[in-house]
Each structure stands twice: as C-alpha cells, then as structure tokens.
Write a structure and sequence with these properties.
Blueprint (H helix, E strand, L loop, with lengths): L10 H14 L3 H16 L8 H6 L10 H11 L2
C-alpha cells in the first residue's frame, strides 16, 4: 500500500533533487523510497556500517537484467 508523505525542505535542495531526478530517470518519490530502503538496509546490516560509496550503490541494479553469471563472465574476460 502506498501512502502520501509531505516533506518541508529548502527550496534549493528541492531544485537539486528535481534536477537529479530528471537526470537519473527516477521520480522524486522513487528516490526518497530508495533512500528510506537504504536506511532500513543499514539497520539490518547487523552492526556493520556501510561506507557512503557502498550505500550509494545499493539498489543500483534493481531494475537491471544483468545476472551474477553475467558479472562473473565479465570479470573472467577482464582478468585473462
């Protein structure tokens, strides 16, 4: 079930978020949902703190058709 959420944010922050949203092809709602999922995932990491870079990559391939096998094949070819 989806619910509406109202946020009060600085105008410049909103402009930057909209610009990023447009470049990334994700809606603002999706960006916020992804961030909230990161928070939840971080809490579930059993005390392991994720680095900012790893957190920024979390979910990056969620809508991708790339499989783990594709990645393994890529690495094998790369390191021959």
């Amino acid at each position: 079930m989806n619910s509406k959420l109202t946020l009060r944010l600085d105008d410049e922050l909103i402009r930057n978020a909209k610009r990023y949203s447009s470049k990334s092809g994700k809606s603002l709602s999706r960006l916020v949902a992804d961030y909230f999922a990161l928070i939840d995932a971080g809490e579930k990491a059993h005390g392991r703190e994720l680095t900012p870079r790893v957190r920024s990559l979390f979910g990056a391939l969620a809508d991708s058709s790339v499989t783990e096998q594709d990645y393994r094949r890529h690495l094998e070819e790369k390191h021959r």
